[in-house]
Amino acid sequence: MKISGRTFVVSGGASGLGRACVRDICALGGHAAILDMNEELGSALVQELGGSQAKFLPCDVTDTDSIAGAVAAAVAWASETGKPLGGVIPAAGVGFPGLVLDKQLRPVSLENVDLVLRINLRGTLDLVRQVLPHLGAVEPEGVDGERGVVVMVASAAAFEGQMGQVAYAASKGAVAAMTLPMARDLSRFGIRVVTIAPSMFESNMTAHMSDKVRVGLKKAMEFPARPGQPEEFASLVRQAIENVMLNGVVIRLDGATRMPSKL
Ligand SMILES: NC(=O)c1ccc[n+]([C@@H]2O[C@H](COP(=O)([O-])OP(=O)(O)OC[C@H]3O[C@@H](n4cnc5c(N)ncnc54)[C@H](O)[C@@H]3O)[C@@H](O)[C@H]2O)c1
């Protein structure tokens, strides 16, 4: 799938990994609809990109009507600009930690579990399912008749969740597990599904980590012994969009890091 001349829907596109994807898509001549709750960061990004290649659409991915409104606006924008939808990158996510049982013998709160699952799992699936009917209706491209790409975001926690990551690991493990059945369901439409599972990347989500945690994390890293940069994540998303042979797969992006129990 060519990025140039296409519109991509990016949730969580106002910050971190999603923002790097938005910048990359626009640099390659595509358009990006930024669906996010953070209007300040989203609008600043649209300005940075010159105002015409990206559009900020306020959206809370836990609210299905909010997604519906934002998707409808993205589809209308794609039609106005003549750049049909090319894919969706549901990158909105949160990492609220919580031990399944704490030292005071209190089990993790269901509010915590529900919120993490609502944003990371239900929010991902709901956005994808609402974009899909529009992707399924675009003109197929190239010899393979490709219509679009779904690039989901899991995490190393899908495989090696650390202490306090029960809810987060459940949400990301579920995203990883959805990848193959979704690809199978969508193959008849020429729509591919790729999931990326990053280890620690620099972003707002990880900016507040203590020095102790950062030092511990470095010890768990092989090569390179540093957190990933959002641009390195965006570069793999670009490949996932452009390389038609990537489908139904979860790709670890982690420099061989395997997370220990705690840092
Ligand atoms: N940074 C890492 O180390 C890392 C590692 C593995 C996976 N991830 C995943 O990558 C994705 C992006 O995370 P990031 O590191 O860029 O974090 P980030 O905090 O920089 O960006 C997340 C964005 O999601 C938005 N968001 C949060 N809740 C939302 C909601 N309900 N509706 C709409 N938007 C919402 C936020 O406003 C923010 O702009 C997440 O799914 C995260 O779990 C991150």
TrEMBL record:
Domain Ketoreductase per the UniProt entry, residue ranges: 6-199
InterPro entries according to UniProt: KR_dom, NAD(P)-bd_dom_sf, Sc_DH/Rdtase_CS, SDR_fam
Entries under SUPFAM superfamilies matching the protein: NAD(P)-binding Rossmann-fold domains
GO molecular-function term, one example from the UniProt record: oxidoreductase activity
PROSITE patterns: ADH_SHORT
Sorted UniProt keywords: NADP, Oxidoreductase
Leader sequence segment: none
PANTHER family named in the record: 17-BETA-HYDROXYSTEROID DEHYDROGENASE 14-RELATED, SHORT-CHAIN DEHYDROGENASE/REDUCTASE
Identification of the protein by name: Ketoreductase domain-containing protein
